[in-house]
Amino acid sequence: MAMRHIRGTVRACGLVVAVGLLGPWALAGGLSAGRIHDVADTEPRDVAIVLGAQVLSSGTPSPYLRGRLDVAADLYRSGKAKVILVSGDNREAHYNEPKVMKKYLVSKGIPEAKIVEDLAGLDTYDTCVRARRIFGVNQAIMVTQDYHEIRTVATCRMTGLDATGTPDRSQIHDKVWWKGWAREFGARGKMIIDVVSHRDPVLGKPEDGVEKALKAA
Predict the structure, then answer these.
(1) Which one, 22, 114, 128, 142, has least CB within 10 Å?
(2) 2-32 and 175-197 helices, crossing angle to 10°
């Protein structure tokens, strides 16, 4: 009897763990299904949003961030996006992801007037919420790495932003890539907590940067 009870408890715990891990993956997959395309197949929208990533000590984008920015540049050049919103971390005076992102895009020929900086996109949830509530963006193409794109599109949709995704697929599947992929198990669970709790990111006053960029020549 005792052994049967132990086995039942183990099975129940296993089920809870499976639901906790696989549930967020299924939800993210369902919400992003049919919405992630390469540049050529992406439906045009006014705004492409690039999520921040590591900036090197040299003040240049890391390979992963550079890959995202190259995709965004392709979206602009191909007429798929009219404005690029670069969203990243600027919590410390000496570290400014959006500034570096903008500088890189300008070096690639994207007009400065068409690039808007979001200085408080500290994570995926924050970027999605701030895009809508601070910058007035209701529809957007989200740009990040392929393994991150599913969660990004799902998070934005659950926070009221009509999102599609155009991923960077240029990175080789090295240790960094696999580490990012594995991180999704915890990150997708956090996604559920953030959305259900309606956590407020750093907000502030609404900004008209995107509106001005759309009107700029």
Answers:
(1) 22
(2) 90
Furthest CA-CA distance within the chain: 78
pTM over 0.85? The answer is yes
* pLDDT tens-digit map of 18-38: 444 567 888 998 999 999 999
- Helices 2-32 and 146-158: crossing angle in degrees, nearest 10, is 90
> Buried (b) or exposed (e) across 75-94, using 16+ Cβ within 10 A?
bbeeebbbbbbbbbbbeeee
* Structure-block tokens of residue 149: 């794109």
Helices 146-158 and 175-197: crossing angle in degrees, nearest 10, is: 10
CA 163 to chain centre: 10
- CA dist., res. 162 & res. 181, Å (int): 24
Distance between CA atoms of 118 and 108, rounded to whole angstroms?
A: 20
Distance between CA atoms of residues 157 and 189, nearest Å: 16
